[in-house]
């Protein structure tokens, strides 16, 4: 199977994230991920997209872009936002380290990045060309173990 | 107040029971926060949230529940959760929130724990 790509452009509004979550769940089911892994993929993408909406976009019309790539070995999702004046640096390594260091189970916020780290096989954050953030999440396909 | 688009509210003596009727991504989580904040305003301090119809919860919703639980305890009450799937419980466990918010297998056991 060669790498195939799906692109979604979604308004930067949490109203639309439930639809994105349902879509990736159905795609993951088609790719024969286990039920547990599908829940992981859906939660990771929910957290990534929520961060993109709250931290990475100045208004709903600026939108977030999802590039979803599938091949025999993996499902890769890249979520891109366009940045927000004044807080473009939320995804710098220093800022991420600070967020992780301050995370506490009793905190109301700051758990999203930790969950993304727990739920993905690989993830990375980098500043994109328009000053926003690209968050990449990779989930490896292992058909031998995907029988749940 | 009897509920919202995603929440139904019932009473059992002095305990308010919220039946969540939607998966808790960030959009529905804002509805949950609104309902819980209104209960705090009404001086309600014993709340059970029933997750029987919920298949997904994100960290925004978990954080809301953690924050409300702390405020209810300051008022002498508490927030208890019930009927979570193993997937939901895992999310609470990953975050560590299950050490902050009490989770029960059934509504009956959650109510009995007050």
For the record, the CATH class of chain A is Alpha Beta
* Number of separate helices of chain B: 4
Task: Say what the CATH topology of chain A is.
Answer: Heat Shock Protein 90
Rg over CA atoms of chain B? 12 Å
Tally the structural domains of chain A: 1
Output mean pLDDT of chain A.
87
Mean pLDDT of chain B: 94
Q: Would you report the number of β strands of chain B?
A: 5
Q: Globular, elongated, flat, extended or rod-shaped: what is the shape of chain A?
A: globular
Decide which structural class fits the backbone of chain B.
alpha/beta
The neighbouring-strand order within the major sheet of chain B is 1-2-3-4-5
Radius of gyration of chain A: 15 Å
**What is the highest CATH level, the class of chain B?**
Alpha Beta
Any guess at the CATH architecture of chain A?
Answer: 2-Layer Sandwich
What does this structure look like?
The complex is a heterodimer of chains A (148) and B (114). Chain A is an alpha+beta fold and 148 residues long. In chain A, 36% of the residues lie in helices and 24% in strands. Chain A has 4 helices and 5 strands, in the order βααββααββ. In chain A, 35% of the residues are buried. Chain B has helices at residues 26-41, 59-74, 86-95, 107-112; strands at residues 7-12, 15-20, 46-50, 78-82, 102-104. Chain B is built from 4 helices and 5 strands; from the N terminus they run ββαβαβαβα. The radius of gyration of chain B is 12 Å and the shape is globular. Chain B has one domain: 2-Layer Sandwich (Transcription Regulator spoIIAA), CATH 3.30.750.24. The mean pLDDT of chain B is 94. The chains are: A alpha+beta (148), B alpha/beta (114).
């Amino acid at each position: 199977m060669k790498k195939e790509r799906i692109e979604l452009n979604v308004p930067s509004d949490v109203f639309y994230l439930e639809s994105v979550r349902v879509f990736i769940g159905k795609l993951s089911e088609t790719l024969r991920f286990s039920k547990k892994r599908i829940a992981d993929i859906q939660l990771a993408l929910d957290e990534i997209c929520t961060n993109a909406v709250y931290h990475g976009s100045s208004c709903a019309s600026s939108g977030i872009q999802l590039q979803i790539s599938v091949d025999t070995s993996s499902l890769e999702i890249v979520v891109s936002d366009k940045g927000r004046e004044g807080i473009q640096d939320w995804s710098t390594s220093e800022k991420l380290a600070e967020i992780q260091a301050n995370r506490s189970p009793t905190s109301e916020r700051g758990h999203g990045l930790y969950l993304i780290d727990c739920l993905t096989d690989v993830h990375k954050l980098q500043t994109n060309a328009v000053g926003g953030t690209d968050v990449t999440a990779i989930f490896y396909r292992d058909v031998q173990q995907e029988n749940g | 107040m009897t509920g919202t688009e995603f929440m139904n509210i019932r009473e059992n003596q002095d305990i308010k029971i919220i039946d969540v009727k939607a998966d808790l991504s960030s959009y529905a989580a804002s509805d949950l926060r609104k309902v819980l904040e209104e209960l705090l305003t009404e001086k309600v301090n014993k709340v059970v949230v029933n997750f029987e119809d919920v298949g997904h919860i994100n960290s925004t919703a978990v954080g809301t529940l953690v924050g409300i639980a702390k405020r209810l305890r300051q008022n002498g009450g508490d927030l208890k959760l019930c009927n979570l799937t193993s997937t939901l419980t895992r999310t609470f466990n990953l975050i560590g929130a299950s050490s902050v918010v009490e989770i029960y297998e059934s509504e009956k056991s959650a109510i009995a724990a007050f």
